[in-house]
Amino acid sequence: MAAVADETLDCMGMVCPEPLLETFKRLRRMEVGKTLEVFGDFPLSKEEIPAGMKEAGQDVVSISEKGNVWHIIIRKTK
Asked: What is the pTM of this model?
């Protein structure tokens, strides 16, 4: 990863919709402009989290995957 996020959320072992809900919870506590790295291993969450963030008006900075673990970096915009 080129950028280091301000906060990290470990969603390993969680299944939908828990990773998305936990991502929203964490973002609510963060300041605008800060970044959150979310990672986990449930395949559908790799699609669901970015879709939910875009719908909520948050900035999805990057999505990557190594093995069966995905990493999503989100910048809080509001």
From this structure: 0.93
